[in-house]
Predict the 3D structure of the following.
Amino acid sequence: DAGITQSPRHKVTETGTPVTLRCHQTENHRYMYWYRQDPGHGLRLIHYSYGVKDTDKGEVSDGYSVSRSKTEDFLLTLESATSSQTSVYFCAIRTGTGGRGDYGYTFGSGTRLTVV
Amino acid sequence: GEDVEQSLFLSVREGDSSVINCTYTDSSSTYLYWYKQEPGAGLQLLTYIFSNMDMKQDQRLTVLLNKKDKHLSLRIADTQTGDSAIYFCADPRGKLTFGQGTILTVHP
């Protein structure tokens, strides 16, 4: 979909281990986002990026870090995974031009992470 | 603030109309979006409405916007079992804030 892929699609990891999720785009969009989806909470923003090496925190950033060394890749790292980080993680890119307030977004297919 | 709220569940019979409601707090949004998420999939943009419109119709979908009450609704006419999904309203200003999502279940 619109040149955005997430990897891996599924991951099971043990508590205390580091985990990195990758979001890759092929369309050179400036803005990229990481969300987590949990029942009853909808999608909550973890971190976002507005350019190479430019990132900022979202509403649930504790326990997560991100890096963006290239336009096409936005990495989300759980330094020491906990069971509360079991979730489905979605990456998104802002595909709208911003003109007339058009901030269209395209989402990846998600990564299901289970921390045991 | 940018809070967006939705009811969590809606159950309808096939062929009936579905109405999914959303309230938001930021009155300066230029657009408001509806996204659909099918089981095991990511989110897809379903439709959107400009803030200067009261209504937008797109085939079986009707979006109503009441700016005074900060209320947005999505009506699906002749609901089909394939419409079963989670529906999110979203405010794209700033960092794209989502409602909690409404789980629509369509019974045959």
User: Anything to note?
Assistant: The longest strand of chain A covers residues 42-51. Chain A has a mean pLDDT of 91.
